[in-house]
Write a structure and sequence with these properties.
With 137 residues, this protein is mainly alpha-helical. 49% of the residues lie in helices and 10% in strands. It has five helices and four strands. The longest helix has 27 residues. The model has no long low-confidence stretch (mean pLDDT 75).
Length: 137
């Protein structure tokens, strides 16, 4: 990697020789003038070219081209958002030991639960009817 020296315009700006000095220079000014008078290089590779206008024009062209020609339909938009979120197959199925119907593993059998609920609701409804008939008498 080769290093480039600063352009001549920059070198003249860094030297304080063009500034009028009415007083004798201080130690700090002497050190600065020594540093400014010695040639130094900026750590930029020679292959790197910074041309700001061409960089901005490239960005501007890409921004202008990044406009859709037509509005995205609702179906295409939703299918893009829902990609990979489909329903998964249920693989944890077992047979109920009481009734033999298919049920999900580690859950109660819905058929057995319905029978138990109907049985309880029947008993409570019968008890309510008995209680209401005794109150009316």
């Amino acid at each position: 990697m080769t290093l480039r020296q600063l352009p001549p315009q920059w070198r003249t700006l860094t030297r304080p020789s063009h500034v009028l000095q009415l007083r004798p220079p201080s130690s700090i000014q002497r050190q600065f003038s020594y540093l400014a008078s010695t040639p130094f290089s900026l750590a930029l590779p020679a292959a790197v070219q910074l041309s700001i206008p061409s960089l901005l024009s490239g960005i501007w062209d890409s921004i202008l081209r990044a406009v859709p020609k037509k509005k995205t339909s609702h179906m295409k938009k939703r299918s893009r958002f829902m990609a990979g979120k489909a329903l998964k197959d249920v693989t944890n199925l077992n047979k109920c030991s009481a009734c033999g119907n298919v049920k999900r593993a580690h859950l109660l059998c819905p058929y057995c639960v319905k029978e138990i609920r109907d049985m309880w609701m029947g008993k409570t409804k019968a008890a309510e009817k008995d209680a209401s008939s005794k109150v009316e008498m």
